[in-house]
Records
---
Amino acid sequence: RFAAAVVDGALTDPAGLIGTSDVGWWFVDQYLGADPPVPSAGTATPTLVVHGEDDRRFPREQGMRRYVELRRRGVPAELLLFPGEGSDLGRTGRPRHRRARLEHLLRWWARWLPVTPDEDLTGEVVDAGPPPGDDDGAEPLTVRATRLD
């Protein structure tokens, strides 16, 4: 259904959030119910997972668990962990981390969405091969786990 996705500091495991978030132990029960649904990791969509290591709203284990679930199932995935950053990385993170995050997002989208501005999008899934002109022979399922300091 989607050519690619980015999960950026998100709640991906409601049960794992109970008692670990700064919003309080009651958050999951109040907003998702006593038996919260587990967001599906059954997707085959290539996914970039971005997370701050010091995120107290949705602790880094949320992103790490999603990344591992995807990789265990053979889904193309990358994990970016930013040390010293919290849940507001995109707005209030260190300037070099915000820039690195944006550069990785642009790289990710360029890899999985090789669409030209004049191309008519018909709703079909974009081929997940390497971008046009990328003749380095790299396997399109290459995964990088990156830690930015």
---
Amino acid sequence: KAIITKAIPTILLALLICTATALASVQISEVYHDPIGTESGGEFVELFNPTPLPINITGWKLATKSSVKDATIPEALIQPYSYYLITDANWQESKDNASWPAADHEEAITLVAANAGVLLLHNNNIIDAVGWGTTDLAEGTPLTPPPEGLSMQRTQDTGNNSADFII
């Protein structure tokens, strides 16, 4: 019994470390900031959970050049090795390709086409950032802004946007 009692604090500490690590692991996996033909309804930010644990993202925020609270995620979990799609309002009607998935969360967002970025925030702490053009909303060197109709997709996570994303 004494061994179990002494082990409980160690187990709780390990769980807290695992949870904190998982929270910090959520990534912005793709950003579509300049849709074809419309700036209203066609933009999206996709999140990815690269861990074996579900992560509660309730209340997390997207901050952009336009707003420090461009979107607030409602009650939501990202399952292990799964994605969560945040889209602009009217996504279902305005997305460039009808075969693209439905949104997990739809809210009016404003992703500026040039010299901007998006931050993923949890309790006002930056979890991840993607920037394009000349901006301070980036990890490392920002990406060259892609042409209209192309997205920025993460291929790795080195902490440098220009190395981590492809167009």
---
Amino acid sequence: MWADFRAALTSKECDLLQQIWVKLGRVKFTILGGGQEVSQTVAASYLRPGDWMRGYYRCSAEALRAKVATVRQLFAQVLGCTELGCDPASGGRMMGNHFGSRLLGSDGELIDLTRQVNRASDVSCTASQMPVAVGLARASRVFQEVAEISELFPRMSQGGQEVVHVSIGDASMAEGIASEAVQQAVVQRLPVIFSVYDNRWGISVPLEESYPHASVSLALSGLA
């Protein structure tokens, strides 16, 4: 409980400071996750070593709670620090609040992914996280069904026992690739959890113009 509260509060304070930096001209641009902190931290708190996350650019609280990123790394990314020691996610090559786990060690060898919560690198295109998450979940199923693969790559999976958690805003769920991803996850019974944040508004379009009855739940109810 305390870890959830701490991550949510820390994320909120980071958002506020980034807003100040933008107004002062210290950074050009930042993307905030205000209002989603509690749901993100609760979702991340259930992830275990070996599990995967695939979020989008408003998931700083989720990344902090899962220890995919630290506060120092978050601000290093916003400032565009090019040192991997400062921003291990991309060395300043991704936009702010875009996270990702290091999969290789300094020696170039694969890190034991079963000992950490992993995050596939974020990208900015809306809904693009959805097919990636389904692909990760499909890989987990393959590890579960094909024993030979689990034996060959013991650092990549615990016999397919991991789950994938993906976050998305409700407006982005209207994208075709998002619908396709959910359908395939249901059809193949894949171990993926979808968190859809109820923002009621996209980047420039209200939810009423994206869904019948302005309800993602009703739109997806037939897939249950």
---
Amino acid sequence: MNSAGWRPEGVPPGDLGSDDLRSGDLGADELALRTLASADLPSAPLAERALAAGVAAGLERLIGLFRWLSPPSGLSLTATATLATLERGGPRRLTALAAREGVTQPAMTQLVARLQDTGLVDRVPDPADGRVVQVRITAEGRAMLARRRAVRAERVAGLLARLSPDEQAALAAALPAMDALANAQRDDPLVAQP
């Protein structure tokens, strides 16, 4: 990283003109950076916006990789993310799950019903208010997540073997930052809002 912050490869500092936008020769990272640079976003300096654009583009690519790594199970990414949320955070109300996963409450109600029908979650009374129901992951739900993670880890190991030791070390060094980014979203649900 240079002293000005992250920049997409091939974009020299100060070169944020709009001519290349019209040429169609930009990669996704460069296009995102230039779009951010030309937008009227007074809240962050250009270096922070460039980093945000690079991270967002990288996450987009990682989502595609994540889908490829995940074994077929008949569950959507939202369903598996909901199970992982319940595994990490314990039982939650439907409204909290819907907000956390970025879906409507009716959509989450339908999803939880399907997960319950397959034995991956169940509904239990809220210990603080018996009139309220919480959703919790079952032992089968935990086992399914563990199986999916094991397959993904095996597939990632194959990909890591193709990388150089420096690239592997860079990924290892990035793990705490990736975790901090995920935790920042969990701590501030408004960050996830469009």
